[in-house]
Amino acid sequence: MNRGSPWDLVTGSPEGQCRCGPGAPPSSRLPRSPTARVKRHAQLEGGATERFAIFERFAEHLRACAARGPVALLLDDLQWTEVSALRLLRHLVQRPSLPGVLIVGALRTTEPLPPDAHELVSDVLAYPATDVLEVSGLNGSEIAAFAEAASPRRLSDAEIGVLARRSGGNPFLLGGLLRWVPSDGSLVELDAALPLAVRESVRRRLVVEDAVTQRVVKAAAVAGLVSSLDLLARVTEVDRTELAQALDSAVRAGLLVGQPVGRSPVEFVHDLVREAVLSMLASWDRIELHHAVGMALFDDARSSSWAAVAAHLTAARPVVEDATLADVARRAAVEATQAGAFDEAADHLAVALDVMQPAGDTAAHGELLWERGRLLWAAERAEESKQVLSEAAALARRTGDGELLARVALSWRGGELRPI
Question: What are the two backbone dihedrals, phi and then psi, of residue 113, each rounded to the nearest 5 degrees?
Answer without folding.
Answer: -105, 140
